[in-house]
Amino acid sequence: MTTTVPHPPAKTSVRDRLLRLAETVTTPLLPADYLDLVAPLRAGAALRGRIVAVDRETRDAATLTIQPGRDWRGHLPGQYVRLGVDVDGVRQWRAYSVTSAPDRPDGLISVTVKAIPDGRVSNHLVHRTRVGTIVQLDQATGDFVLPDPVPARVLFLTAGSGITPVMGMLRSGVPSRADVVVVHSAPTPDDVVFGGQLRALAAQGGIRLVERHTDRDGLLGVDELADLVPDHLDRQTWACGPVGMLDAVQEHWAAAGVADRLHTERFRPTVIAPGEGGTVTFTRAGLTVAADGGTPILDAGEAAGALMPSGCRMGICYGCVLPLRQGAVRDLRDGTLTTALPGDGVLIQTCVSAAAGTCDIDL
Amino acid sequence: MTVIQHKPVNPIAHLSAEDIEILGKELDAIRDRVLAERGESDAAYIRKVIKTQRTLEMSSRAVLLFSLFPPAWVVGTAGLAVAKILENMEIGHNILHGQYDFMRDPKIHSTTWEWDHVSPAEQWKHSHNQLHHTYTNVLGKDNDLGYGIMRVDEDQKWYPMHLGQPLWNFLNACFFEYGIAAYDLELGRNLRKGRHKTPEFRARLRGVGRKIRRQVLKDYVIHPLLSGPSFLSTLAATFTANLIRNLWSHSVIMCGHFPNGVETFSKTSIEGETRGEWYLRQMLGSANISGSRLMHVMTGNLSFQIEHHLFPDLPSKRYQEIAPQVRALFDRYGLSYTTGPLPKQVASAWWKVIRLSLPNRGAARPTTDERPARALATSGV
């Protein structure tokens, strides 16, 4: 009697073998390190993009059109993308909403950046970006998206650069499929990012646009919504803007018992009480730094020269998560204390966590 | 040289403890000025050097595929040697020092970089950055003083094996990368003390073994095989390129701490050393090489060894920039700034290796730390 042991299917393809051969030639580098010199956007490379146009939107906002690398998987309207940009020679990661419609025939995407005061990255992108620059990218992500099918009646409630994810949705054809109201706040008519396009869309009857110019009329109060959009609580609402506005909006919808009809996107973390601070040790890097209770571990690590992974810096993208091996950290947004005992590996978001005593971070 | 404490004329006797602290502050100020400017130009510089090096290496290797043709052999070998020198000196050494960590580019970072060298980056960083740069020129602490196989200071004890040190030094120069790998493993000491069986040592040994295998496979098997009929001539070319790289880096590194004029220090002298005293030791314990811009690039700016030892983590191209300020401090504090052209410095270092292969002449000098004086504290306190 003979038994046959089934052969495992050959897993190494010719391509894999060639790649391994190439690695023996390029060691200690990888073949990719050489290919990156000539084809940084090729399939299989770390995801990058090339800036192909910079268009000024307002005095402090610009749209960057980017040709993404071959492995870009596309995005849903409303999602954001993390962008790694070298500012003064230092790689900085930030998240920006994608403002282009998905599936543009030319395959390009765009993000629209508003320069915020003292914002190193936003000012660099708006005022000093040169066409041809290579930026690092991550795949698009985010839950601030419309369901399929689109609800019949939609309200977009935005302020400042909060219009950017909504613009991505408007450009993807939502106005033709739903009854859309946009209530947008900006200091003056000239400060409205995409002002011209929004007004044109309204003139064509695609959307109803309510502009609020806060320099003249003051901030929009939630109690005014009843007059501006009488059926606002019956609409599915997507809101994006400053922290104060979102807090008020959430309270308003919750008080009406329809919190499930509200979807929000926050661009900045809400920092409440800082804690006591402590000593942070990055165990593998062998670095120890003292950090106060108001400084995110991410900032403390970067200042000490650790190669910290980072992303949105506001607690939403999880690009900065590292294991806390032991010690305690406090969430800067809500004061929650997270502790880890020796041997644990509690994953924490370093961009919104500050030391609360001694802590060991696995980096 | 002789440890500074045993010299008939102590070169720092004229400095008070206070002077040394002010000197330290002045050096801190130079460092702060560079840090304030450090940024885009440094990032652009290292990226340019990396791109040049990779282009040169790949094109040289491509030319060597036809190395049977003599001009191709010459051009390819020269190009590969230069590429390997650039990779080790201006790129690898400096990135592994963390000079470009500020860029936060995971591809150009001291924790992720691996270099074209048989000693794994991780082990080299420990013996070089942590030991050599901390204990620079302290006898019994800084193994760079003779690499454990030579005697380069009168105050190091003479053993008969030192008679052969001109030969050891020559062999070490030819196979320098292997010498460094053994040095980073502390092979001699670990074997002597019977620590070669500990799991920790064996893991490090395996790491070196893996690295050697990969390097040898690349240079002496795969690349020659890809050259087909040029197999043997390519093998000779990669061997020659490695030899040139080894001789060059060995020469540059000998010039850093061995030439005449460089001071050494006794173990006890660094107990409780202040920041100012540490700086002073780096100033006196290193020597520069004078030369052209090309020379500085090819030495990885270790031709500014003094500036490098003062500020090991500043981007290397900054050393040239701050050298006049550093030199002005030497003048102002009455210290001698040791420098000279490469041939002179190499000859000076070699002469020391040859001279000290014999025992000290004349009355035996004190060879232990019998004088209680701390070098830097003798000066005025």
From TrEMBL, chain A:
Swiss-Prot/TrEMBL keywords: 2Fe-2S, FAD, Flavoprotein, Iron, Iron-sulfur, Metal-binding, Oxidoreductase
Domain FAD-binding FR-type: 44-147
Essential cofactor(s): FAD
Transmembrane segments: none
Entry keyword annotation includes Disulfide bond: no
Domain 2Fe-2S ferredoxin-type: 278-363
Pfam families linked: FAD_binding_6, Fer2, NAD_binding_1
InterPro entries (UniProt xref): 2Fe-2S_ferredoxin-like_sf, 2Fe-2S_ferredoxin-type, Beta-grasp_dom_sf, Cbr1-like_FAD-bd_dom, FAD-bd_FR_type, FNR_nucleotide-bd, MRET, OxRdtase_FAD/NAD-bd
Keyword Flavoprotein recorded: yes
Protein known as: Ferredoxin reductase
TrEMBL record, chain B:
Residue stretches spanning the membrane: 63-86
Superkingdom: Bacteria
Region of interest (Disordered), ranges: 362-381
UniProt keywords, alphabetically: Membrane, Transmembrane, Transmembrane helix
Keyword Cytoplasm: no
Domain Fatty acid desaturase: 72-339
Pfam families: FA_desaturase
The protein, known as: Acyl-CoA desaturase
Organism in which the protein naturally occurs: Micromonospora antibiotica
